[in-house]
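Table S4 entry, HD domain-containing metal-dependent phosphohydrolase family protein.
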Amino acid sequence: MGTSWNEEVTICYSLCCQDRRSSKHIRDNVHGNIYLYKVFMSLIRLLIYAASFSGLLHDVGHGPFSHLFEREFLPQMLNGYEWSHEDMSVKKIDYIVDEHNIEIDAAMLKNVKDMVLASSANASQNTVNEKCFLYDIVANGRNGIDVDKFDYIVRDSRACGLGCNFQFQRLMETMRVMDDEICYRAKDYLTVHKLFATRADLHRTVYTHAKVKGRCN
């Protein structure tokens, strides 16, 4: 399976690719109004940057062996201790910014951290209330369809020699935002089914395999 860094870079790249599609969609719908186009694109790019940073950094808080460390090892070693890799990711983001004196807009930094926490139990109340579609891109707490899964399912399937029929590019090209929620065409239901079916196979044959879990016990 790939490294966490490979995963995060791929997620960031996927999000940046959306910028080109957003640009074309907006250009086709502002009817030649250059000023309006520039305003919309400035806003879209800021939001895409925030989502891209979130995709790049949302898993930096994982411990060794990823979820096994969080769900199997820590509960056995530290009885009753609650630990969240999303919380640790936010702490590391703050540490990186402070330690290296990175100049970043406060609102941008807050958006990035809110996106990291959006699908966790520790999401900010404002994020929970607003539930803007932007908070569903990296880690979707509403339906579980997000670019994080797109990346690791395809990558891990290939790395383990399992083969993968799931084509995330099709979903990314046809998804639309309706009523502040990311939606997919009804005729793409088989692609969505393959996403969750492949994920279930990976959990059964790889992630929770007795030999894999045994190394952590």
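The longest strand covers residues 176-178.
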